[in-house]
Amino acid sequence: MADKISRDDGKAPDFVFLSDPGHRVIDRYGLWNPAGKGWPHPATFVIDRGGIVRWKFVEVDYRVRASNQQILEALSRLR
Amino acid sequence: MRGLGAVAPGGRTLRGKACVLAMALLIWSAGLAAAQGAPPLGPKDGAGLPPTDLDRVTVGSPAPDFTLEAKDGVVVTLSSFVGRKNIVLVFYRGHW
Prior knowledge:
The complex is a heterodimer of chains A (79) and B (96). Chain A has 79 residues and is an alpha+beta fold. Chain A is built from two helices and three strands; from the N terminus they run βαββα. In chain A, strands 2-3 form a two-stranded antiparallel ribbon. The mean pLDDT of chain A is 84. A three-stranded antiparallel β-sheet of chain B has the order 2-3-4, with no helix packed on it. Helix content of chain B is 12%, strand content 24%. The model of chain B is unreliable at 1-21 and 26-36 (pLDDT under 50). Chain B has 96 residues and is α+β, with helices and mostly antiparallel strands. At the A-B interface, strand 1, helix 1, strand 2, strand 3 and helix 2 of A face helix 1, strand 1, strand 2, strand 3 and strand 5 of B. Strand 1 of chain A pairs antiparallel with strand 3 (66-70) of chain B, so a sheet runs across the interface.
């Protein structure tokens, strides 16, 4: 599946895709979408080197996503 | 996936200050069995918590630890990055 993903410049993604069969991590994070199609509510977390959540974006409307700029700004505040 | 792909080049420009690892969590539809003999996969705690609680993980609190499998059997544990990298953790709605 990850082989199907390519960036605009045609290169392979340099991030890691994890699979969550049984949605157990999704449930642990409280993101299970009760509409029951097997999906999480989309969410983005920025986690620092101490394992602490420093920024969070969760939106039940799947069409509303964290922007890349928001994520990068959150990261830029971390050491 | 254009949006996710665009994070990675930005991540590289931050590498002097903060390494970035983006992970996408997906639901796989039926049948991806855990590998035999691999470390237990999934969250490290919190069994029995309700699955939907959008306020459970809050800014300033530790991110719940977990171990999950990437493609080719590579196993990734979130806490393995402590002391090493900042993480962008993306839960992506979709399945293949």
